[in-house]
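Notebook, bench 3.
Goal today: get a predicted structure for Dipeptidase from Lentinus brumalis so we can plan the truncation constructs. The sequence was checked against the plasmid map this morning, with no discrepancies at the termini. Length recorded as 445 residues. Pasting the sequence as submitted so the record is complete.
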Amino acid sequence: MPENGETAPLLGEGIPNLARTGNLERETPADRRRRLATIRAVVYTVLTVVFVVALASVLFLWDKITGVVGHLPKDPEKAALYILNNAPVIDGHIDLPILVRSAFANNISAIDLEKPFAGHVDIPRLRKGKVGGFFWSVYTDCPHAGSEGEDFLNATWSVRDTLEQIDIARLLVQKYPNTFAWTLKSSDIKAAIGRGQIASLLGVEGGHQLGNSIQVLRTYYDLGVRYVTLTHACHNAFADSCGIFEDPKPYHGGLSKLGYALIDEMNRIGMLVDLSHTSDATAKQAIKYSKAPVIWSHSSARAVHDVPRNVPDDILKFIGFGQGQTDAVVMVNFAPFFVAEPGKADVKAVADHVDHIAKVAGKRHVGLGSDFDGIGEVPVGLEDVSKYPALVAELYRRGWNAFDLAGVTGGNLLRVMEGAERVAAQMQKAGIPPAATKYDKRTDL
C-alpha cells in the first residue's frame, strides 16, 4: 500500500503505450506539452479511481467516500481531519451510562448532553472529535469479593442494574434523535453515519451481569446488546478474569463448561465475544474455540506496558487471516495505568500500543476503545472524545496511510462485526437450536 496517501505507479504499460501514439522525434514543444498534459490527466483520473475504490473497500463502501481523492494534506492535523471526515471513529467502549448512574441517579432529565457535560463525553465534543459511532458500555460493578459464594450462586443485583444501564442508554439515544441513532447491525452503523448521526450500540461489560444464565444473554441481545465481555475484574460462572492490578488465582483454568456453551450461543445469535478483562487462558481458549471473529473492546499491548489487562504477544499472534488464526480486532484502551508508567501516558504512548498491535497482529486488527467516562485519568493530548484527531495525526506522522487509518478508526471493527453476523446467519440457517445449557451448580432447575 502507498504510504501517507502517496500514490504509487499502478498503470504498468499504459503510459508508454500512450506516449507512442505519435512520432515523438517530430513533435513540436506545443505538441509535447499537450501530450504530457494528456498523460497527466489520464494518470490522475486512473489513480483517483484506484484510490477511491481501495479506500471505499476499507471504509465500508459509503457513498460519501467518493469525495476522497488525490493526495492527503502534508500537515498531519489537516490529514487527520480529512480522513476522519470520511472514516469517523467508532469507539469500542465508552462508559457514559455508569456516569449517569453514579452522578445523576439514572435521571436523564437532569443532564443536557448538548452543553458541556461532566466527564469526557458530550455532543459538541463528539462532533469535534469526528465520532461516527460507539458502544455504550452498560457496566455494573463486580459483586463484593465472596458475596456470590464459592460457586457464584448467591443472588446479586447485577442483572437489575444492567437492565437499568440499558434503559439509560436507550433513553439518551431517544432524547437526542438528531444526534444518535439506535443501531443493531453493521449495515445500520453505515446507514447512520451516512445520515450524519452517531451510531449507538450496547456492550455488557462482564459475564457476572448474566446471572449465570444463557437465557439472560438472549434477552440482552433482544434489548440491543451486541457484545458481552466474558469477564470483568472478577471470575464468574463462565470464565476466569485477569483482575486489574495483578492476576488472581485461577478458578476454572480459563473457560468453564458453561463458558464454552455461552460462546456457542453468542456465535449463533451474532453477539460479539469480547475478551477484554479475561485471563490469558480464557482468551486463548476463546479465540481458538469461537466460530466467529472476536474483539477486545478496550485493551492495549502488554509488550508496550506490562499489566495483566493488556494483550500479550503470544495471544496477538493468534489473530489474523492465516491457518490457525482467527479474525479479531484489539481496540486500544486510553487508561493511563494500562498505557504507560505514571506520568508518561500521552498521545504518543497510546500510538505506541496501536503500532505494536499492528506490528504483531497486522494493521487490519487494531482499533480504538478509549474507556472514556470509565477512567479517572486520561493521557495528555487525549483528554476527551474531541481529541481523536490528535491520535490519527500522530499515527499519520509515523507513516500510517489513509487505508490503514480508516481501518483503525472503525473499518476493522465493522469487518469483524460483519464476520460475526455471517456466522450467525449460517448457524441459524443450519437449524442449530438455541442453547439450553444450564449452570451445573444450580439446584432450582
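The first strand starts at residue 89 and ends at 94. The chain has a mean pLDDT of 89.
Flagging this for group meeting.
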